Amino acid sequence: QVQLVESGGGMVQAGDSLRLSCAASGLTFGTYTTGYTMGWFRQVPGREREFIARIGWSGNHPRYADSVKGRFTISRDNAKNTSYLQMNSLKPEDTAVYYCAVSKYGSSRYVGVSDFDYWGQGTQVTVSS
Fold this sequence. Notes:
This protein is mainly beta. Helix content is 0%, strand content 47%. It has strands at 3-7, 10-13, 18-25, 37-43, 50-55, 63-64, 72-77, 82-87, 96-103, 118-119, 123-128. Strands 2, 4, 5, 6, 9, 10 and 11 form a 7-stranded mixed beta sheet that branches. The protein has a 4-stranded antiparallel beta sheet with strand order 1-3-8-7, with no helix packed on it. The model has no long low-confidence stretch (mean pLDDT 94).
């Protein structure tokens, strides 16, 4: 059974930082045994889920949405099957539920919701002005 568990969300003020974590388990079958991409998305009520960042198995060539480039950093620890999203200089418009996900696709061009196979339950991030 595949499980993704996010943690680290909360309520902060504009300009503050947060670090989200996503621990994955159960990815021990098929192509996942040779590696997988981890990604982060966010969603606000009434809007589509939005791509934020993704990182491949080797950690090279992470990709970011323009809205977070230069402020957010994605990383991963394969020994712990964990991805991290360091969020700095947070803005009120970053308020959303943040989801982590995994994809069997290694290429950085795959950043759509449908390109990711498994999802966490989400963690709320609220940034006040």
